[in-house]
């Protein structure tokens, strides 16, 4: 069996993507959905406004996500993007987009996870039944965005809201650090979306967190779909586990069974 | 069509900060799973030992039972006194198929005269020179790893000075390669390994628009890096099957002068 044929045995949802860069072109994004046979794709934001977006830029990002969903259809799983440094605006965004079919909250790098304003916004999202996907990075090198949350902060936030469901993106970048940071937080799942390709990340995730807390995502379009999904196919685990990672876990977290094509 | 598969970029041996599955049995299992006929590897000992020859000898000894199909780069640190001896050693051993330079970790300039001497002598000995941009992901390597990736202008200058010597670029990112101020058509002896280059969603589809595919190689960095995603990326890329099979192995046969 060829590599592509092996992939086709599984249903796949990409739980981490952005409608920016090449995916600002809706037609190209739709073509990729078909080409990759994706059952669904989580759209987190188009990153308008950079590290510290204004309320106006946040609105623009969420409107672009909504337009994409309206154009492409139910395979687009829209997450509400907020900047918790503007808590009143973030709460209003959650309220508004919650009424427009958005299904979860996305934090990027504009606020620390330990910031009180983050807690206020998180509480509102969780009250709506939304999971919270949080970018997290442990950076041994380079200058971090000023308010970027490292994995230990995600653990602190998750402990503060033990009833809530969190997704820590990128396994915190350096996977041994990130996974150990949230290992004891049963309400935190992880994705390994992106171009970091270090062998062992998924294996340690499954070992420490179990098969129901590891989620497939890509960070498309900035990373390659096949490169990301191939990491899961490479794992020496049962197909049932791969299927949980590739779609089952995000379906459960988002309550998607009836929504996904 | 019988397709030869060559992985031109394995990373083997004891990694100093993480256990990776690279015992002989692991490498055999990797070969079985990935289906490659031959591979070219770099051992961490070759890269990191004070005495690169001693490190290389240990790598060769550990994997001697795989010598029929597993080849190695001879990592050469120009500041080590016996670089010329290592070059001669490489040219005399069929298991050693190229010299590898890793200035990002050994911290020397590509414009140093000694680098030119090495490239020239390698060419005389019919050895390709592999220039490795980095070994580890720049963002998540341990803090004590100080990788200083050469500027793309330095790399471009290096390539234009290499003349008839075959050169392979490895572990450069797509964004870096596309920014290299060179005319690839005018560098007929330069090959690029695209197996570990951080492609975006369209990088491999667009590769043929700017790079001559008959000079593209594919090394995955396994087992330090995941291999199957990279291979799947090539399998799914929009390019002629003939070009794909060349990248997968036939081009490597040419650059390493294998029959």
**Pattern of helices and strands of chain B:** EHEHHEHEHHEHEHEHEHH
Largest sheet of chain A: 8 strands, parallel
Radius of gyration of chain B (CA) equals 17 Å
- Uncertain stretches of chain B: none
Number of domains of chain B: 1
The number of distinct structural domains of chain A comes to: 1
Oligomer: heterodimer
Count all strands of chain B and give the number.
8
CATH superfamily of chain A: Metal-dependent hydrolases
Computed structural class of chain B: alpha/beta
CATH fold name of chain A, please?
TIM Barrel
Strand fraction of chain B equals 15-25%
Taking the sheet with the most strands of chain B, its summary is:
8 strands, parallel
> Which percent bin holds the helix content of chain A?
40-55%
Describe the protein:
- The complex is a heterodimer of chains A (261) and B (259).
- Chain A has 261 residues and is α/β, with parallel strands linked by helices.
- Chain A has a single domain, classed as Metal-dependent hydrolases (TIM Barrel, Alpha-Beta Barrel).
- Chain A is 42% helix and 12% strand.
- Chain A is built from ten helices and eight strands.
- Chain A is globular and about 55 Å long.
- The model of chain A has no long low-confidence stretch (mean pLDDT 97).
- Chain B has an eight-stranded parallel sheet.
- With 259 residues, chain B is α/β, with parallel strands linked by helices.
- The radius of gyration of chain B is 17 Å and the shape is globular.
- In chain B, helix 8 (174-179) links the parallel strand 6 and strand 7.
- In chain B, 37% of the residues lie in helices and 15% in strands.
- Chain B has one domain (6-255): Alpha-Beta Barrel (TIM Barrel).
- The longest helix of chain B has 15 residues, at 241-255.
- Chain B has eleven helices and eight strands.
- Chain B has helices at residues 24-34, 44-48, 52-62, 83-91, 103-106, 113-124, 152-161, 174-179, 203-206, 228-236, 241-255, and strands at 6-12, 38-43, 70-75, 96-101, 129-132, 167-170, 190-193, 216-217.
- The mean pLDDT of chain B is 96.
- Classes of the chains: A alpha/beta (261), B alpha/beta (259).
- Chain A binds chain B through residues 2-4, 7, 21-23, 32, 138-142, 173-176, 195-200, 220-231, 233-234, and chain B through 18, 20-21, 33, 137-143, 196, 198-204, 221-233, 235-236.
């Amino acid at each position: 069996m060829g590599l592509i044929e092996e992939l086709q045995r599984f249903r796949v949802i990409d739980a981490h993507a952005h409608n920016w860069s090449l995916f600002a072109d809706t037609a190209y994004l739709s073509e990729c959905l078909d080409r990759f046979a994706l059952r669904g794709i989580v759209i987190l934001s188009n990153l308008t406004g950079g590290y510290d977006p204004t309320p106006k830029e946040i609105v623009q990002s969420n409107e672009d996500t909504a337009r994409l969903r309206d154009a492409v259809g139910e395979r687009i799983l829209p997450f509400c993007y907020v900047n918790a440094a503007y808590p009143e605006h973030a709460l209003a965004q959650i309220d508004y987009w919650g009424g427009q079919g958005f299904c979860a909250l996305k934090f990027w790098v504009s606020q620390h996870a330990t910031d009180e304003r983050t807690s206020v916004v998180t509480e509102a999202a969780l009250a709506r039944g939304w999971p919270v996907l949080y970018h997290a990075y442990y950076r041994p090198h380079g200058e971090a965005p000023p308010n970027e949350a490292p994995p230990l902060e995600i653990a602190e936030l998750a402990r503060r809201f033990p009833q809530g469901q969190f997704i820590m993106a990128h396994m915190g970048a350096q996977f041994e650090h990130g996974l150990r940071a949230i290992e004891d937080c049963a309400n935190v799942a992880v994705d390994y979306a992106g171009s970091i390709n270090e062998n062992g990340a998924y294996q340690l995730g499954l070992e420490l967190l179990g098969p129901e807390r590891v989620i497939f995502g890509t960070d498309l379009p900035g990373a390659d779909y096949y490169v990301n999904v191939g990491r899961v196919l490479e794992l020496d685990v049962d197909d049932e586990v791969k299927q949980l990672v590739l779609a089952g876990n995000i379906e459960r977290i988002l309550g998607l069974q009836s929504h996904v094509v | 069509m019988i397709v030869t598969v060559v992985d031109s970029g394995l990373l083997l041996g004891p990694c100093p900060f993480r256990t990776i599955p690279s015992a002989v049995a692991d490498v055999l299992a990797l070969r079985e799973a990935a289906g490659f006929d031959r591979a070219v590897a770099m051992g961490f000992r070759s890269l990191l030992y004070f005495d690169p020859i001693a490190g290389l000898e240990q790598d060769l000894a550990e994997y001697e039972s795989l010598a029929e199909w597993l080849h190695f780069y001879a990592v050469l640190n120009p500041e080590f006194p016996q670089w010329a001896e290592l070059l001669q050693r490489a040219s005399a051993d069929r298991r050693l198929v190229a010299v590898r330079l890793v200035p990002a970790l050994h911290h020397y300039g590509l414009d140093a005269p000694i680098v030119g001497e090495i490239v020239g002598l390698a060419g005389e000995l019919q050895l390709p020179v592999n220039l490795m941009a980095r070994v580890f992901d720049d963002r998540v390597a341990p803090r004590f790893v100080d990788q200083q990736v050469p500027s793309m202008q330095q790399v471009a200058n290096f390539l234009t000075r290499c003349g008839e010597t075959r050169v392979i670029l490895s572990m450069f990112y797509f964004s870096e390669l596309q920014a290299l101020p060179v005319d690839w058509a005018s560098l007929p002896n330069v090959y690029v390994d695209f197996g570990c280059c951080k492609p975006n969603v369209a990088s491999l589809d667009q590769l043929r628009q700017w790079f001559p595919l008959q000079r593209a190689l594919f090394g995955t960095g396994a087992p330090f890096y995941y291999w199957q995603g990279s291979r799947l990326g090539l399998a799914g890329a929009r390019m002629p099957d003939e070009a794909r099979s060349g990248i997968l192995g036939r081009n490597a046969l040419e650059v390493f002068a294998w029959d």
